[in-house]
C-alpha cells in the first residue's frame, strides 16, 4: 500500500520514470554495441524504441480493458440489452472531476502556484457535528475562504470514501496540511463522553485516511462546547498546540496553562454582556475537572497508534455561518488556533510521506552528485595539471641536443610511455579522476604527438635509416664473384625490407620490424649495449606502430640504393630458409583445424582391436580432407602473401621476379614438401602397427577369419582408406576415372571382395603409396603379380586348414603331422601362404617394411608358431630317444668325454659321426631337412621355415662340432687320419723317442725330417709314449699312455700353438720332469688333424633341439623380435 501511495504522488512517478530512463540509457551506452547500436544516433533511436515498447506494455492492461468494454457495449446494443440513447441516465461525476474543479478554481483565484499559498485542512467527524462547525461542508465536499481550503473527509464510523481520497492525492503534492477531527465528546452536555472504543475507531479511521493519501498528517482535535447564543461576541482562538511525543502530563500542563488567559478574556467579555460566559465556563471546567478532557485524549497519545496529535481547539458551534455562495464559508478568529503553515509545527509533527520519500531521496542524491561533481572537478584539475607538468618535463630533455644520445633516448622512452598512456585513455576512456569536465587527454595528445615525432625522427628513424643504408652499401660493394654475397643475401634482404618499411608505412609490421632491426643493429654508437638491448625494442616497436597511423612520418628513401639492392638480391636470394619458414607458417594455420586420424577412424565399424593396434596417429593436417579444405587454400594464401612480399620488397611492380623466387616455383616446392611430410606421416603410422598376440590356436583362427572376411575385415577397410588417402592431390582427370571405377566396383561388390578403384596413381603420392595400392589392382591376374585378393584367398585356405585341425578328434596329432611335413622339407598351404606373404611384404620395399611384416608376414608366422610349438616338443622327445639316450649310454663316463682311464669306442663313435650314414646325420636329414640344411661342414637353420621356432644354440654348436670332427677324423666312415711329425732340438736334450701304436720316431739331434703317422694304427697294443735322454742323465720316461686314445691323451698334455712358416702346422711342446722342453712340429692333411679330437673333451650332447621357453617371440631379425606383443594398458 505504501509503495502504491508513493508511486501515485505527483513527483514520485516522474522520478521513477526518470530513473528508469536513465538506467536504460546507461545500459544502451554500455552494451548497445552487442545489439548493433554503436553510434549515438543509433543509441538514441534504440532508447526511443525501448521506451515506446515499455510504455505500450505498461498501458496494455488499460487498452485491453477499454477494448473489452467497447466490445461488450457494441454486442449489448446489437442484442438490444441497452438503449441507444443513454443520456437519460443520471450521470454522477466522478470524484476526480470534483478535484479538477477545485484545482481550476484555486488556480484562477491564486495563480499557477496556488499550492504554496493556501492551507488545506481535511475535516472529519460526524456529519451533524461538522455541520455545527462548518455548515454545508458535508454536502459540498469542499469550501474555501481566505487561503484556507476545507475538505470533507467523511465520518470515522463510516467506511472511507476511497475514490474521494484517491482523487485528493492528485490535488496537490501534499494533499492536506492537517486533519481536523470535530467532536462534541469532550463537552459535558452536548453528547455522551468519548469511550476508548470510539477513540480507537477514530484512530484507525485517521490512520487509514493517511494511508490513502500517502501522507502522515498532523491531527487537530476540535472540541465543540455548549454555549448560549453569543451572537455579536468577538471570537478568539481557544486552544493549544502540543509538542512532539506529547504525554498525558504534558497535555494536562498545556491545558492548565490556558486558565489565566481564559479567565482574563472571559471577564472582559462578560463585562460586555453577561451571556458571553463561554470562556469562563471553559476555565471553570478545566479548574474543576480537567481530567475529563485529558483522559479521553490520552488514548490518542499512546505511542503504538503513531498519530501526530498536534493541537486541541475549543469553541462553541458556529452561529450564522451559512453562505449563499457555494463552496464558501465564514472564517473567524477561531481558526487562528491552527498554524497557518506546517513549518510552524515541530519537525516530528510536520506532514511526512508514508513509505519511501522519493523527493527527499532525489534531493539528497542531487546534493551528493553536486558535491561529487565539485570534488571530481577539483581532483581532475589537479591530476590534469600534474599530467601536463610531467609531460613538459619529459619533452625538455628529449629536445635538448646538448645531452648524450643515451640521455635523449631515455627521455624519449619516458615521453613514449606517457604518449602510450594518453593513447590508451583516448581509446578506452580516461580514469575517473581525470574527467569531470576537466579532461585534457585529447588536447595534450594533439600537442605532444608532433613533438614526439620531431625527436623520434632524429633519434630513431634517421639513425636506423643511416645504419641500414650503410649495411646495404657494404653488400653492394662486394666483388661480383665474392662468396659473401650469397651468405649475406638473407641479411641484406631483411635490411632492405626494414628500410622500405620506413619509406612505405603501409607495409610496416611493428613486431617484426623491432625484432629484426635489433638483430641487425645490436650496438648503437654513444649508447651502452645494456640500455639499447633493454629499451631499443620498445622504442622501435612504438615508433613502428605510430608510423602506420601517421603516414606523414615516412622516410624519403634513396631510390638508387633500393634499385641496386633489389637487383643483387633477386640474383642471390636463396629460397631454402624462406621456404621452410613459409611452410611452417602454412602448417600452423591448419594444424588445429582437423582431428588426428587414429586406427579406429581408418577401419570404420570393423573390430580392428582384435587384429592390430598402435599408439601412433596420423596428424589431422596430413589427410585428404585437410588438403582439399585447408592446406591447398592455405598454400594459395601463403603464395599470395609471398607474391605481395616479392612485389613490394624485391620488385617495384614493373619488373618480374626470376623463376627461382617466383610464386609459381614456390608453390611447387611447398606442395612437394607437404606431400613428402604427408607420406612420411602415413609411413610412420603404418609401420608402427602391431599384430595382436594370439595365445591359442582358436585365437589365431579367429584373427584369420576376421582378416579374410571382405565385409568385416579391418585390413580391407584400412586398405580402402589408404586408397582414398593415397590419391590426395591427384589430378582431376585421374580422380574422375577412379570415381567411375569405384562405382563400377561397388555395383559388382559380390564378385570383387575389396571395393577399391584401380590402384595406378598419377598424383604426388604415387611414389609413396604406389607399392601398397598396387596390391589392390585386381584387374591384372598374372601369376607374377602380387595382390591383396590372392593373399586373402590364401589366408582363407589356411584358416580352413586350422579349423579342420581344431575340429579333428586328435588336434595335437594333426598339428604334429603338419609340422613334421614342413620340417621334413615338404610344402603345405600354410607355408605357401607364409612365403606368399613374405614375398608380398618384400615387394612393398624397405619404406613399408614394418607395415608389410605386421600385415602380411606375422599373421602367418603366428599361425605357424601355433603349429610348430607342439611339434617342437615332439621332436625334442624323438631326439632324446633316438640319439641322446644311446649317445649317453655309449660314451658317458669314457675318455675323451670324461678324464678317466677307460676309452670310448671308436667304431661306435663312427656310427654316430659318419657324415652320410651316421645316426646324427640320418636324424637331421629325416626329421629336420625342412628347417636345417648343410653348408659345407656346418648345419645352418632355414630362416624362413624356422620362423616361430628357436633352435637350441647348444644343439647347433654341438652338431657343427661333431660335423667338423667327422670331416677330419671319420672321412672314410671309420676313425682314421694321417699326419706328420718332425722332432725339434732343445737345450740339454740329447735324444727323444715318441711311439704311437708301435710307430717310432727317434731323434738324436741329427737333421730333423718329417715322419708320417697313421692313427689309429692296426696293432694289438695301441697306445703312445714319450721318453728323452738328457746330457746329465740317461733315458727317462715322460708318459706311457696305453689305449686307442693314447695319442690324443699325449696331445692333450702338450702346449699347442700354430707353427710359423708351416702350412697346417702346429708346434707341440712337452715340459719334462727336469724342466727341459721336448719339441715337435705337427703337420696335418685336413684341418687340425688329431688335435680336432680334443674338442670331444668334456663334450655333452644337448637333449633338446628347440628352445620351448622362448617360443612366444619370433626368431627373425632382432629388430622384429618384439613386434607381436600384447598391448599393455
From TrEMBL:
Signal peptide: none annotated. Keywords: Membrane, Transmembrane, Transmembrane helix. Residues 979-1085 form the Type VI secretion system IcmF C-terminal domain. The keyword Membrane applies. Pfam families: IcmF-related, IcmF_C, IcmF_helical. Residues 870-975 form the Type VI secretion system component TssM1 helical domain. It comes from the Bacteria. The keyword Transmembrane applies. The chain crosses the membrane at residues 12-32, 44-63. InterPro entries: IcmF-rel, IcmF_C, T6SS_TssM-like, TssM1_hel. Residues 409-725 form the IcmF-related domain. This is Type VI secretion protein VasK.
Amino acid at each position: 500500500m505504501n509503495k502504491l501511495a508513493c508511486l501515485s504522488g505527483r513527483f514520485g512517478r516522474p522520478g521513477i520514470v526518470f530513473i528508469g530512463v536513465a538506467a536504460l540509457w546507461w545500459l544502451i551506452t554500455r552494451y548497445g554495441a552487442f545489439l548493433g547500436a554503436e553510434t549515438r544516433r543509433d543509441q538514441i533511436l534504440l532508447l526511443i524504441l525501448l521506451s515506446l515498447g515499455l510504455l505500450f506494455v505498461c498501458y496494455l492492461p488499460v487498452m485491453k480493458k477499454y477494448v473489452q468494454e467497447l466490445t461488450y457495449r457494441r454486442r449489448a446494443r446489437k442484442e438490444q440489452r441497452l438503449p441507444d440513447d443513454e443520456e437519460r441516465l443520471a450521470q454522477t461525476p466522478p470524484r476526480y472531476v470534483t478535484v479538477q474543479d477545485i484545482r481550476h478554481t484555486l488556480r484562477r483565484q491564486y495563480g499557477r502556484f496556488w499550492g504554496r499559498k493556501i492551507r488545506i485542512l481535511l475535516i472529519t467527524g460526524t456529519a451533524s457535528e461538522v455541520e455545527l462547525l462548518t455548515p454545508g461542508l458535508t454536502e459540498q465536499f469542499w469550501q474555501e475562504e481566505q487561503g484556507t481550503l476545507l475538505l470533507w473527509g467523511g465520518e470515522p464510523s463510516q467506511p472511507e470514501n476511497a475514490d474521494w481520497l484517491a482523487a485528493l492525492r492528485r490535488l496537490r503534492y501534499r494533499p492536506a496540511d492537517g486533519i481536523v477531527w470535530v467532536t462534541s465528546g469532550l463537552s459535558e452536555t452536548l453528547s455522551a463522553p468519548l469511550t476508548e472504543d470510539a477513540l480507537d475507531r477514530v484512530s484507525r479511521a485517521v490512520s487509514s485516511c493517511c494511508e490513502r493519501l500517502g501522507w502522515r498528517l498532523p491531527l487537530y482535535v476540535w472540541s465543540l462546547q455548549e454555549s448560549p447564543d453569543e451572537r455579536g461576541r468577538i471570537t478568539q482562538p481557544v486552544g493549544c498546540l502540543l509538542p512532539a511525543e506529547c504525554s498525558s502530563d504534558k497535555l494536562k500542563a498545556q491545558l492548565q496553562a490556558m486558565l489565566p488567559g481564559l479567565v482574563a478574556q472571559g471577564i472582559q467579555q462578560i463585562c460586555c454582556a453577561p451571556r458571553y460566559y463561554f470562556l469562563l465556563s471553559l476555565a471553570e471546567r478545566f479548574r474543576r475537572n480537567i481530567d475529563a478532557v485529558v483522559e479521553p485524549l490520552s488514548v490518542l497519545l499512546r505511542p503504538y497508534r503513531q498519530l501526530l496529535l498536534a493541537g486541541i481547539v475549543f469553541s462553541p458551534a458556529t452561529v450564522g455561518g451559512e453562505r449563499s455562495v457555494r463552496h464558501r464559508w465564514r472564517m473567524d478568529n477561531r481558526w487562528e488556533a491552527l498554524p497557518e503553515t506546517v513549518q510552524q509545527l515541530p519537525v516530528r509533527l510536520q506532514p511526512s510521506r508514508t513509505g519511501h520519500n522519493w523527493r527527499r531521496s532525489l534531493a539528497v542524491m542531487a546534493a551528493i552528485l553536486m558535491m561529487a561533481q565539485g570534488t571530481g572537478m577539483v581532483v581532475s584539475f589537479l591530476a590534469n595539471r600534474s599530467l601536463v607538468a610531467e609531460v613538459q618535463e619529459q619533452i625538455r630533455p628529449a629536445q635538448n641536443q646538448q645531452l648524450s644520445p643515451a640521455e635523449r633516448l631515455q627521455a624519449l622512452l619516458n615521453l613514449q610511455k606517457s604518449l602510450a598512456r594518453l593513447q590508451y585513455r583516448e581509446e578506452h576512456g580516461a580514469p575517473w579522476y581525470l574527467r569531470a569536465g576537466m579532461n585534457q587527454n585529447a588536447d595534450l595528445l594533439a600537442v605532444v604527438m608532433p613533438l614526439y615525432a620531431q625527436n623520434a625522427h632524429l633519434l630513431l628513424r634517421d639513425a636506423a635509416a643511416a645504419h641500414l643504408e650503410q649495411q646495404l652499401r657494404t653488400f653492394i660493394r662486394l666483388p661480383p664473384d665474392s662468396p659473401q654475397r650469397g651468405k649475406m643475401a638473407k641479411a641484406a634482404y631483411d635490411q632492405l625490407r626494414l628500410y622500405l618499411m620506413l619509406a612505405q608505412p603501409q607495409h610496416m609490421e611493428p613486431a617484426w620490424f623491432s625484432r629484426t632491426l635489433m638483430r641487425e643493429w645490436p650496438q648503437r654508437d654513444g649508447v651502452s649495449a645494456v640500455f639499447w638491448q633493454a629499451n631499443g625494442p620498445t622504442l622501435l616497436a612504438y615508433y613502428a606502430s605510430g608510423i602506420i597511423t601517421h603516414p606523414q612520418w615516412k622516410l624519403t628513401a634513396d631510390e638508387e640504393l633500393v634499385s641496386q639492392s633489389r637487383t643483387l638480391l633477386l640474383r642471390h636470394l636463396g629460397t631454402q630458409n624462406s621456404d621452410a619458414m613459409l611452410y611452417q607458417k602454412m602448417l600452423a594455420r591448419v594444424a588445429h583445424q582437423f582431428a588426428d586420424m587414429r586406427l579406429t577412424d581408418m577401419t570404420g565399424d570393423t573390430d580392428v582391436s582384435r587384429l592390430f593396434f598402435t599408439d601412433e596417429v596420423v596428424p589431422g593436417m596430413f589427410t585428404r580432407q585437410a588438403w582439399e579444405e585447408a592446406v591447398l587454400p592455405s598454400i594459395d594464401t601463403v603464395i599470395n602473401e609471398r607474391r605481395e612480399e616479392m612485389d613490394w620488397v624485391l620488385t617495384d611492380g614493373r619488373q618480374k621476379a626470376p623463376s627461382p623466387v617466383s610464386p609459381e616455383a614456390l608453390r611447387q616446392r611447398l606442395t612437394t614438401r607437404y606431400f613428402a611430410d604427408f607420406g612420411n606421416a602415413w609411413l610412420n603410422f603404418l609401420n608402427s602397427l602391431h599384430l595382436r598376440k594370439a595365445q591359442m590356436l582358436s585365437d589365431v583362427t579367429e584373427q584369420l577369419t576376421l582378416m579374410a572376411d571382405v565385409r568385416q575385415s579391418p585390413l580391407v577397410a584400412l586398405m580402402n582408406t589408404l586408397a582414398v588417402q593415397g590419391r590426395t592431390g591427384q589430378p582431376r582427370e585421374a580422380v574422375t576415372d577412379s570415381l567411375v571405377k569405384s562405382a563400377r566396383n561397388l555395383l559388382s561388390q559380390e564378385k570383387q571382395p575389396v571395393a577399391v578403384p584401380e590402384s595406378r596413381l598419377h598424383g604426388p603420392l604415387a611414389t609413396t603409396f604406389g607399392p601398397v595400392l598396387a596390391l589392390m589392382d585386381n584387374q591384372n591376374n598374372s601369376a607374377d603379380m602380387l595382390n591383396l585378393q590372392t593373399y586373402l584367398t590364401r589366408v582363407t585356405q589356411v584358416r580352413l586348414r586350422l579349423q579342420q585341425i581344431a575340429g579333428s578328434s586328435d588336434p595335437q596329432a594333426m598339428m604334429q603331422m603338419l609340422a613334421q611335413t614342413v620340417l621334413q622339407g615338404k610344402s603345405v598351404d600354410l607355408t605357401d601362404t607364409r612365403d606368399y606373404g613374405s614375398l608380398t611384404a618384400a615387394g612393398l620395399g624397405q619404406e613399408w617394411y614394418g607395415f608389410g611384416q605386421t600385415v602380411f608376414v606375422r599373421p602367418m608366422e603366428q599361425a605357424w608358431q601355433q603349429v610348430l610349438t607342439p611339434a617342437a616338443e615332439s621332436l625334442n622327445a624323438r631326439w632324446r630317444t633316438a640319439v641322446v639316450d644311446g649317445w649317453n649310454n655309449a660314451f658317458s663316463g669314457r675318455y675323451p668325454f670324461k678324464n678317466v682311464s677307460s676309452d670310448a669306442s671308436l667304431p661306435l663313435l663312427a656310427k654316430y659321426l659318419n657324415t652320410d650314414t651316421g645316426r646324427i646325420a640320418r636324424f637331421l636329414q629325416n626329421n629336420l631337412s625342412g628347417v636345417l640344411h648343410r653348408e659345407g661342414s656346418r648345419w645352418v637353420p632355414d630362416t624362413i621355415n624356422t620362423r616361430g621356432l628357436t633352435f637350441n644354440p647348444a644343439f647347433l654348436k654341438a652338431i657343427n662340432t661333431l660335423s667338423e670332427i667327422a670331416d677330419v677324423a671319420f672321412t672314410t666312415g671309420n676313425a682314421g687320419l694321417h699326419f706328420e711329425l718332425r722332432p725339434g732340438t732343445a737345450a740339454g736334450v740329447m735324444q727323444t723317442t715318441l711311439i704311437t701304436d708301435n710307430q717310432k720316431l727317434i731323434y738324436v739331434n741329427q737333421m730333423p725330417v718329417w715322419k708320417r703317422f697313421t692313427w689309429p694304427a692296426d696293432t694289438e697294443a695301441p697306445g703312445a709314449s714319450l721318453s728323452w735322454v738328457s746330457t746329465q742323465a740317461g733315458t727317462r720316461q715322460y708318459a706311457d699312455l696305453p689305449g686307442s686314445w693314447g695319442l690324443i691323451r699325449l696331445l692333450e698334455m702338450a702346449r699347442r700353438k700354430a707353427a710359423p712358416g708351416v702350412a697346417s702346422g702346429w708346434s707341440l711342446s712337452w715340459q719334462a720332469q727336469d724342466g727341459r722342453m721336448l719339441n715337435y712340429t705337427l703337420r696335418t692333411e685336413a684341418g687340425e688333424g688329431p688335435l680336432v679330437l680334443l674338442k670331444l673333451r668334456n663334450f655333452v650332447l644337448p637333449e633338446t633341439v628347440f628352445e620351448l621357453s622362448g617360443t612366444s617371440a619370433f626368431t627373425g631379425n632382432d629388430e622384429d623380435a618384439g613386434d607381436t606383443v600384447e598391448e599393455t594398458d
